[in-house]
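Review form for a predicted model. The reviewer records the input and the model, then writes brief findings.
Reviewer: anonymous (R2)
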Amino acid sequence: MSNAKVLPLLEPGDQDVAPCCPPLTERPMTAEEAETAARMFKALGDPVRLRLFSAVASHEGGEACVCDISDVGVSQPTVSHHLKKLKEAGLLSSERRGTWVYYRVEPSVLAAMGRLLTTATV
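Model under review:
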C-alpha cells in the first residue's frame, strides 16, 4: 500500500481557479501550503517526469496515450513509474481505454501552478 498523498490543488466543482497556494509574492506561505507546493515541485523536479508532464500537457487534444509519450530515453517500466508519481502528486489524471491508459493535465491544474508563480495583484 502506498503512503502517497494526492495534492489538493483544486476543490472539485470550483468554477474559478483555486490554487493550492497564494502567489508567492502575496504573503508568506503557511506550513501546509508550503508542503503541498513542495510535493508538486518535487514531482516535477525529475527531468524525465518534467518531459512526460510536458508531453501530456502539450499533446493534441489535451490528453496522451502512454504509447505516444513513452519515448523519453528510459524503459517502459520506468515511464510507468514516473507517470504514477505525477498522478500521485495530483498533476495528472488517467483513464484506461481497452489496453491503453490515457493521461491528461486538467487546465485548472496548469492555471493553479501558474498563479502560484505570478505576482499578486493589489
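Findings: The radius of gyration is 15 Å.
Further findings: The longest strand covers residues 93-97.
Recommendation: see findings above.
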